[in-house]
Amino acid sequence: MIDFSWREDLSESFGKVKRPVAEIFIKDKTGNWRALTMIIDSGADASVINRSFGELFGHDFKKGRQIRMKGFGEQEIAAYVHTMRLKIGEHELDAEVAIADIEKGPNVLGRKDIFNVFEIQFKNTAECTRFIK
Amino acid sequence: MVPDEKRLKDDFQWLIKNSAILQQKNAGKFVAIVNKKVAGLGETATEAYEKAKKAYPDKEPLLDIIPEKEFLLL
């Protein structure tokens, strides 16, 4: 079981907001683990990192399977799906992660290959997210 | 095995408590944290990472992008 406390951010619209984030390790193309923060999003079909992180991790990002990403509104963003080795707490797993063709944007931990491995509980009163394997 | 995992866990705890402070001047930038300090800031993840590695060659930084204040996550 792993608990990740929520991150306190400032929002122009809502003042202080608490966002569920996790410390995730991703193995780069040289075999080294890199540590990054990702927003845990049960509404996201899959995990996404931005192009800048994809490049740092050594991915020729356009070599992945191309998909179209769409959130609220009409705009689509191209993304490329790669299989990456992730470590969450003590647990390692392979997950399909999309590299979005945008320089900036949040890193998102979505459902595919993650939510079927862990029972993930958003604990609002404790302001943390619990991963149970 | 991730080297320095205990220290990275402490850096994560520091980051989530200080994110709002970092947003005041550095929203939208990439950040690399080492030893509960900002070790690298940049316009790209690589720039932030390389600054941190220059300051702490033997340590792996925790990476993040500091959210914009107008950012609304759906």
Question: What features would you describe in this structure?
Answer:
The complex is a heterodimer of chains A (133) and B (74). Chain A has 133 residues and is mainly β. Chain A has 1 helix and 12 strands; from the N terminus they run ββββββαββββββ. In chain A, strands 4, 5, 6, 7, 8, 9 and 10 form a 7-stranded mixed sheet that branches. Chain A is globular and about 45 Å long. The longest helix of chain B has 22 residues. With 74 residues, chain B is of the alpha+beta class. The interface between A and B is medium-sized, with 37 and 33 residues. Strand 5 of chain A pairs parallel with strand 3 of chain B, so a sheet runs across the interface.
Per DSSP E runs of 2 or more residues, the count of β-strands of chain B stands at: 3
Compute the average pLDDT of chain A: 94
Order of helices and strands of chain A: EEEEEEHEEEEEE
> Residue ranges of chain B: pLDDT <50 for 5 or more in a row?
none
Our estimate of the beta-strand percent of chain B is 15-25%
- Counting helices, strands and paired strands, the structural category of chain B is alpha+beta
Distance between the termini of chain B: 34 Å
Number of helical segments with 4 or more residues of chain B: 2
Keywords:
heterodimer; A: 133 residues; seven-stranded mixed sheet; 1 helix; 12 strands; globular; B: 74 residues; alpha+beta; 20% strand
